[in-house]
Write a structure and sequence with these properties.
Blueprint lengths: L4 E4 L10 H9 L2 E4 L3 E5 L2 H6 L9 E4 L2 H13 L9 E4 L2 H6 L10 E4 L4 H9 L6 E6 L5 H8 L4 E11 L12 E4 L2 H10 L9 E5 L1 H9 L6 E3 L7 H16 L1
Parallel strand pairs: 1-2, 1-9, 4-5, 4-7, 5-6, 7-8, 9-10, 10-11
Antiparallel strand pairs: 3-8
Helix pairs in contact: 1-9, 7-8
């Protein structure tokens, strides 16, 4: 079958120069975007049950803007005043700059990495005397606490937000030739929203081995995989697949 309509289970890119725009134009495809998952902050009542004292920490590790939002949300709901001496360790420069939404940036001690936790760890190791608070999602990467423990860093891990399935009921009558997933949570959302889902001729594209495993565990078939040696990105993998299908039709 020829691929004409694709649904990507992520938010729509903010600009027209995304790889998906090029993919659509090059192959005459209609590509829609719809997040299959959403993030919810945990209620402050639930946070209290974890018995985490935010002010007992001298540094905070932020792995995303969502972590920043929920750290300051919970602090505000607990009516805490975060001291000016608090140190902030951010995964990227963009996350560090995002702190301006909540604090006077130039008056704080802020450190940031180049986008990877391994890089951020190098900075954290230089501040071993700090006691770190690490706000995370319920689906966080296990490498984060693992690397902190290996380096013998004093830290508290706290779940401040969780990933939940989005309501996709409006898609019930919409048919796509291909569904694109980037995480196991997306597959979970598909099955929660459409428990009777049958793959039939729908092609499924996945990014990463964990997502591929989630598809197989659900009894579905993976048709497109990324990253691979030949296709390091999802759009490249889809492009190759679409071209192959077009050849088959001829």
């Amino acid at each position: 079958m020829k691929i004409k309509k694709i649904l990507v289970s992520q938010p729509e890119p903010v600009n027209d120069k995304s790889p998906y725009s090029e993919l659509a134009e090059k192959n005459n495809l209609k590509i829609d975007f719809r997040p299959f998952i959403q993030v919810e902050g945990i209620p402050v009542k639930e946070f209290r049950q974890n018995r985490i004292d935010i002010l007992a920490h001298t540094g905070v590790v932020f792995t995303s803007r969502t972590a920043v939002d929920n750290y300051f949300r919970i602090s505000e709901e607990l009516r805490l005043t975060i001291p000016d001496t608090m140190k902030y360790f951010c995964i990227s420069e963009a996350t560090a700059f995002y702190l301006q939404k909540y604090i006077v940036y130039r008056k704080r001690k802020i450190f940031y990495a180049k986008g990877t936790f391994a890089d951020l760890m190098e900075t954290i190791k230089k501040h071993k005397d700090e006691k770190f608070l690490v706000p995370l999602s319920d689906t966080h990467k296990e490498e984060i606490p693992k690397k902190l423990e290996q380096a013998k860093i004093k830290y508290s891990k706290t779940i401040m937000y969780r990933t939940v399935s989005a309501d996709l009921s409006d898609l019930s009558d919409v048919n796509y030739d291909m569904l694109v997933f980037y995480s196991p949570s997306g597959i979970k959302s598909l099955l929660e929203n459409f428990p009777e889902f049958k793959q039939n001729n729908t092609q499924i594209a996945v990014f990463g081995p964990k997502t591929a495993k989630a598809v197989k565990d659900a009894g579905l078939k993976v048709n497109v995989k990324a990253p691979t040696k030949e296709a390091p990105s999802m759009t490249m993998a889809i492009d190759q697949f679409v071209k192959e299908k077009a050849k088959e039709k001829k």
